[in-house]
Amino acid sequence: MKTELGTLATALHVKTDDLLKASPHLAPWRPAVGIPPRLTDAELVTLTMLQAMLGFTSEARWLRHARSHLRHLFPYLPKQPGYNKRLRKGPGLLRRVTRLLATDTSVWSDDVWIVDSTPVGCGRSRETVKRSDLAGWAEYGYCASHSRFFWGLRLHLVCTAFALTGAKADERETLLDLLAAEPGLVADRPAQTLIGDKNYFGRGFEHELAEQDIRLLRPARKGEPERPGAPLFKPLRQVIESVNETFKGQLDLEQHRGRTPGGVVARVIQRILSGQCRNQAPAHGSGQGPRYSFGLRSEFL
């Protein structure tokens, strides 16, 4: 493993360990009497981040790699069943750590949000659809960006929030539910600007946003007059697509291999945390050492 990534892993471990020591209630519940886990919660968070960062979609292959190359960071590594069990029980821990890290960055106070959604495929065959534990949550949907149907979920991102829904869930309703989940996010940010695509339309929808003091900018639909902010949409669309491509092309979002609701949720959060912890190297010739940003803007359901 590269020195820079090792430094990032150490920084995340220390940050997570400090957070859990200051707020022990954030850790998963365990009985007062019993054998404590040999892999600490801070080590689990760091280990899952590194797995996604290094592109390992197979847990068995990842643990073999970690035993060969990461013993200096993790004195104890569980076997694959134990790691899988800890990961499936870890969404709450990953979510809380990511949220607390988010509030510690300057981007938390941004007054502009970008909203979009992207498919998260969960199966390719009819037999998978019939036998999967995800049936009833995952469903068939259509991805207009790639002109294809898929079976799975949809990841909704609002830069400060995310939600996993069925593939056919209405993006507008999901956005309103996200904002309603924690009213303080909007109340603490008066005159917030929200930028979305053409799917975020409707008088009633825009009225509900306006009541929360949120200004919606989106491209005009066919037959509509030109809307404010039109010159911004094309370059910002590239920003949105680059975020989605990072999740899918570099962090293998659609290769999550989750087969149960808990497994899918854990692996999606794992990739969001990894995407937010990516190394931001200094400019060439700056003479500075590596800079690491947790780059977090997240509030999770």
Short description:
By secondary structure, the protein is an alpha/beta fold. The chain folds into two domains: 3-104 and 284-292, no CATH class; 110-255, 2-Layer Sandwich (Nucleotidyltransferase, domain 5).
Structure description:
The protein has helices at residues 3-22, 41-53, 59-69, 80-88, 91-102, 126-131, 171-181, 183-187, 203-211, 230-250, 261-276; strands at 112-114, 116-123, 139-143, 148-157, 162-166, 192-195, 214-217, 279-280, 291-292. It has two domains: 3-104 and 284-292, no CATH class; 110-255, Nucleotidyltransferase, domain 5 (2-Layer Sandwich). With 301 residues, the protein is of the alpha/beta class. Residues 279-301 have low confidence and may be disordered. The radius of gyration is 20 Å and the shape is globular. Strands 2, 3, 4 and 5 form a four-stranded antiparallel sheet that branches. Strands 1-6-7 form a three-stranded parallel sheet.
What integer is the average pLDDT? 82
What multimeric state do the chains show? single chain
User: What is the CATH C level class of the largest domain, in words?
Assistant: Alpha Beta
Unreliable spans are 279-301
Share in β-strands: 5-15%
What's the shape? globular
